[in-house]
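Ticket #4471: structure output looks truncated?

Reporter: J.K.
Steps to reproduce: submitted the chain below (424 residues) through the standard prediction queue, then opened the result file.
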Amino acid sequence: MTIYPQARLTQLPIQEIDFPSSFAADFVSEFVKACELDNSGNEIYHSWKVCIMACRIAKKLNFDKNSMKELFFASLLHDIGGVMVGGHVIDLLTQIPDVYGQKSNFRIFVHPHRGETILGTFPTFRNISEIVGTHHEFFDGTGFPKGLKGDKIPLCSRIIRVADAVDIAATVHSADNPDELISLLGIFSGEEFDPAIYEIFVDLVKNEALFDALKTADAVEANMAALKKEMSDHHLLSSPDTLNRFFKMVASIADNLTSSEYNHSLRVAELSVQIAYLMKLNESEILTIRWASFLHDIGKLAGNRSAYRKREKLTDEEWLNVKAHPQRGYDILNKVAGMDKIAYYILYHHENQDGSGYPEGLKGEKIPLASRIMHVADAYDAITSNRPYHRKKQQEDALGELKKNVNRQFDPNVVEVFSKFLMS
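Returned output as attached by the reporter:
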């Protein structure tokens, strides 16, 4: 196959990247909120609450603007290494509140390091990744995974440790009374917590009604909206190259739900770009297709994730959950200003040419061309990869599968172009 040039896709003028200054804060906050839905689809807002508390503490410490932004993103992303099949690390932490039990649980123990590794692939988040990697270190050195002690632990990590423990304790003990929580957690000052930071937290609770910001979903939403305005930054994710790296990082989180889908979204993106290039779409549209392809499975991170590794036939309920991922992906991204077109393409990437697809049963040219392209690339990569439900096929057999399903599942023009690309 002939690989066509793509270098110019990262050299579009900045003015063509039509994202507002709040884009990074909006995207990360909505993405994290979706990752933390419980199995009933309810928002638990754990990382949002941690972020609100952490930023309130940091203001008392007179953080400068850059340090505040690092803390904002690190506190939102502190548990990103705990996104996993069958649940989230928050579920385990509420069941195993003591540090010795947490150290003995592999999924809990590894999640700070895993988060650091994921975020470390994105250079803009390098400092943030270190904070995430040390957010379970204890002031007395008994934490994990590195056993750091005192001032050896980054200040932002010490702040997140307090905020994280407060929200988990409130969940475990169903504690609505601030005085009860202060009494419950005070014994850990000097052990788990930096005493100076815990003292600031207590002052915020007693004198500035910190818990009023966390009592209801509406209060959390309002306080997060105010924080996001403060964190607006035109330069954080301002270039196509930076956005490519950022979306690749997000794609890796969705793909890592199963070992069989490792780098799946990256391969879908590269195949989609090749098809779009051969169909003579303009460079701006090709770049949009690349980003939509990176993010096409982001909806798998919302809701129950256990079905994605299942080898047996899915139950009707599990199949409905799997089929919901395009809609969930759309719901996440459509809340982020500037992502409406990408969200639209993702919503329809499982629609079939004959109208038998999902979520809306669109037919033929009613399906966006970008979605039809992604559908072919997605299917080809699935067929040529080992999955829990089938062994991978070789290129010739996979292409035969695509051709057999033109006019039913796939756009014949897209398959024809893709076939020529593979055979070139």
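Triage note (M.O.): checked the attachment and the full token line is present. Residues 260 and 387 are 5 Å apart (CA to CA).
Status: closed, working as intended.
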